[in-house]
Amino acid sequence: MKTTLLNAEDYTRAPWKNGGGVFTDIADAHRPGTVVKNWDSLLWRFASTPIVAPGPFSHMPDIDRLQMVIGGRGLVLKAGGQELDEREPFTTVRFTGEMEIVTELEAGPVEVVNLMARRGAAEIELVALKEPGERPLPAGTHLVYALSRDCDIHLKCEEFLVPGGSTLKIELTEASRLTLVSGLAVLASIRLVS
């Protein structure tokens, strides 16, 4: 097991692929040997961003996406005849980067987290840790993003305090169990498959 604390002040910011906003890049991975890191070399990315006005999502071929509202409420994603409902915070929706999506804000701006992965390269999961309790973690990379306050977690008989706004990156070579003792966090899980 390897753990790394990613401090909020070290996150990077970059424009959305379509230039419509700015995201905060919390953690990512690119193809090995990549010299220029860009959307084409991306294996996976975990990021947060505000959505302050209705508008289109970026077109991201071959990317699978998970998204969750972590601040505000009332977000709806419209794609053709279907609706992805994120009106309530901490609801995860899954969609592909090829979908033509337009946002609808029913109650003002929201803050979301996105977990994106190149299709076929990784399997991803995104869940909210709202109540104290234990959760199994498979081998892979896991990101515990502490939201509004510090989070106390236990993992393999070790205790970790994750400051609010920071992220604990956990790299596991075998399955383990994570216990949330206190706080509110988002857990992003990535398992590379090729």
Question: Could you describe the 3D structure shown?
Answer:
- Pfam families: HutD.
- This is HutD family protein.
- InterPro entries: RmlC-like_jellyroll (IPR014710), RmlC_Cupin_sf (IPR011051), Uncharacterised_HutD/Ves (IPR010282).
- By secondary structure, this protein is mostly beta strands.
- The protein has two domains: 10-120, Jelly Rolls (Sandwich); 124-192, Sandwich (Jelly Rolls), CATH 2.60.120.
- The chain has no helices and 18 strands.
- The protein has strands at residues 2-6, 12-15, 22-30, 42-51, 63-71, 75-79, 82-86, 92-96, 102-105, 110-118, 122-129, 133-137, 140-146, 151-155, 158-162, 167-172, 176-182, 185-192.
- The strands form four sheets. The chain has a six-stranded antiparallel β-sheet with strand order 2-3-4-10-5-8, with no helix packed on it. Strands 1-16-13-18-11 form a five-stranded antiparallel β-sheet, with no helix packed on it. Strands 12-17-14-15 form a four-stranded antiparallel β-sheet, with no helix packed on it.
- A hairpin with a 2-residue loop joins β14 and β15 (158-162).
- The mean pLDDT is 94.
